[in-house]
Amino acid sequence: MVRPQDGRRHSSSAGLRLHWRALMAVPKRKTSKARRDKRRATHAIEAPRVNTCPQCGSPKRAHRICPTCGTYKGREVEPLRLQAP
Ligand SMILES: [Zn+2]
């Protein structure tokens, strides 16, 4: 935007276009196919890693309570006995 105190007023649209400045960040170079494909090499979906529960031995995800027996690290946590602070 050109402010009035700049002393540069534009009456025609062609003059406005000459003084137009990019407000958006624009990449300097095209991303090469190799760089694009290297970035996308990590985008594949993989199956969740599964550990075995130490309490009941059924498969469970790491850092989550066991969906089968409701324990975490061998301690019973479900239903949660503590009041939320
Ligand atoms: Zn379990």
TL;DR of this structure?
By secondary structure, this protein is an alpha+beta fold. The chain contains two helices and four strands. The protein has helices spanning 13-18, 33-40, and strands at residues 50-52, 59-61, 71-72, 75-76.
Keywords for this structure?
alpha+beta; binds zinc ion; 85 residues; single chain; two-stranded antiparallel ribbon
Task: Give a description of the structure.
- This protein is α+β, with helices and mostly antiparallel strands and 85 residues long.
- It has 2 helices and 4 strands.
- The strands form 2 sheets. A two-stranded antiparallel sheet has the order 1-2.
- A hairpin with a 6-residue loop joins β1 and β2.
- The longest helix has 8 residues.
- The chain is elongated and about 65 Å long.
- The two termini are 51 Å apart.
- About 9% of the residues have low confidence.
- Bound molecules: zinc ion.
Layout of helices and strands:
Elements lengths: L12 H6 L14 H8 L9 E3 L6 E3 L9 E2 L2 E2 L9
Antiparallel strand pairs: 1-2, 3-4
This protein binds zinc ion.
The site of zinc ion has 8 residues, from loops.
